[in-house]
Sequence to fold (173 residues):
Amino acid sequence: MSNPVLDAIAERRSIRAYKPEQITKEQLDAILAAAQQSPSARNSQPWHFTVVQDAAIIGEVNDEANKILGRTDDIFYAAPTAIFISCDAAARWSRFDCGISTQSIAVAAHALGLGSVILGLPDAAFTGPRGDYFGKLLKFPEGYSFAVAIAIGIPNTTKDAHPIEPDRVSYIV
Fold:
């Protein structure tokens, strides 16, 4: 079965190389609209989206996470835009809801001809000794904590789809 939504999900890839050009405001607005239209438990919308297009700030988060994790690579893959999603730490399902919104961002970016990669490694910067500093720097609301980040940009490369593992599905009828 083929339709535009299923095709976008099937065709989307995690992109780890980007062109230096910034995405447009129209693209960013469409991506954020898709994120905010995502479903959430009891329509609680427990997320906050912080868009960062300042390479120095992305680099600061990258450097702190790498220092804590003992890494030296660019965990944002030189993407010109990163969206940091924080969540209401007291809301029971907030991390799940943020995951749903992240998938909406990834599929929306793909539909607009952009690439993205979902990132968990920045978490180290927010849970490390300077976590409060980074939460304030990225304007997380009071009581919110880092959930996930997503890097977005114009793809500079692509890759093949990962293989589907049919044995990871069970049917009980």
Observations:
- The mean pLDDT is 96.
- Residues 94-111 form the longest helix (18 residues).
- The two ends are 22 Å apart (CA to CA).
- Residues 4-156 form a domain with the NADH Oxidase fold (CATH 3.40.109.10).
